[in-house]
TrEMBL record:
The keyword Signal applies. The keyword Ligase does not apply. Residues 26-366 form the Beta-lactamase-related domain. The lineage of its organism: Bacteria, Pseudomonadati, Pseudomonadota, Alphaproteobacteria, Sphingomonadales. Transmembrane segments: none annotated. Keywords: Signal. Residues 415-518 form the Peptidase S12 Pab87-related C-terminal domain. This is CubicO group peptidase (Beta-lactamase class C family). Residues 1-20 form the signal peptide.
Amino acid sequence: MKLRHLLALPLLALATPALADPPGGLDAKVEALRKASGAPGIAVAIVEHGKTTLARGWGYRKLGDPAKVDADTIFQTGSTGKAFTAAALAILVDQGKIGWDDKVIDHMPWFRMYDPWVTREITVRDLLVHHSGLGLGAGDLLFVPRGSLSRKETVKRLAYIKPATSFRSNYAYDNILYMVAGQLIEEVSGKSWEDFMTSEVLRRGGMGTATATYEARWATADRAFPHARIGGAVRGDGPNSVLDEREELGRAAAPAGGLALSANDLAQWLKIQLGHGKLPGGGQLFSETQAAEMWKGVTVQPLTPYPGSLAPLTPKFSTYALGWEVEDYKGARIISHGGGVFGSITHVILLPDQDVGIAVVVNSEDVALLRGVAHLLVDHYLGIPDQDWPKRFGEFMTARIEGGKAALSAVKAAPAKVGPSLSLERYAGTYRDPWYGDVAVTQGTDGLRIDFKTTPRMAGRLVHWQYDTFVTRFDDKAIEPAYVTFALDADGKVSRVTMKPESTIADFSYDYRDLDLRPVEDKK
């Protein structure tokens, strides 16, 4: 779910037969790339023709700890979990408990979208394909960087999120409707999403070390810890450091990307997918009919050419299916999905016509390593000469980070020496957004402070920037800073508060721009 746009770069493919076995010298190559990137650890799973040909790890589970990554080390896999939620729904379709085109309100009569017509019409399939009319990442602040709401309460907040476009007219990636899908699984099956996922998908699928809850992951000794570069001017700048694994995304969002899997688990998942639902030991996890439905593109994604040396990767078409992206390159199909939570990134790639599956996981946010290794492997299995994708992605990511730093530096160099218009105590108060809830501004001995009440431990100082705009300096340095602008009415009172990220390359899930905060009247 996090870093998703960076992870969605399409994979190059050609319609040529798959070569046998992983490329020679892969072990040394991956280790050299890992060391050069500064990433703590990486794991790779490869399946060819129903057999695991590689499942192993490189590097370390945690910086400063000698424990090494192996084939059973579980990594947080982010939005690649969307395909697992789709598979859970497919099981319920096979059982006759739901249909893909059932109206959501037929199973959850209390469910509401902002538009009553959309409430009546939205289907189970619509929940999964990013064409609901919601904007990019709408509602993500309800669980990013942390959350306090239950899944059902989070779903109820959807009624207050205004659409950005009309229903089924445009593609815009979201996480919150996968939370609806998770709630639907609970209401239909009688089991929580976590319990259903664990028993009916992970364990039945032979993914013995995979977890669907934070507690189960924390209880697993062989687990990778999250890392990120948060000490520089923008996220991604500076050296990697260990993140607090307990400071995680809100649990309500787990159906959008809350799983943790090892290389061995991912190999099992690749076999099930390439086998159209067949279980390696016999039987079906879901039927071939549902397997075909989940790979069927529904929403057309706009094509934006990739810059510089990545330009050849632009596909001729790109669609979103049920938890998967379906793309082409010169006639070959690629079915894939990226995943990212803070401190851990993943990519899962299926080459169905070559009967090959690849999964790569990294316990940091080093995209160039992840995508460089993934492309190296795809090129091998499609008979394409080495194109040095690690270098290309490295140059792309360096330019992105440097561009973000330059943009921030340029803004910081010339703030208007005007304001604030009011004495600090007059900015203090509680401000409320219909879908997010309350944000409190208080005055203390060190000036103004801000506290996002729906988000645990998302608080810090407000430092004056220019005019009536302040910038957050959160106590937790891993949280993206935001500009906070107070609008005044004709009487000089605060009438509205708006926000935007300070960094131009902040993750889209910091959807500060969607907040429309208004003063809460004192009822005393």
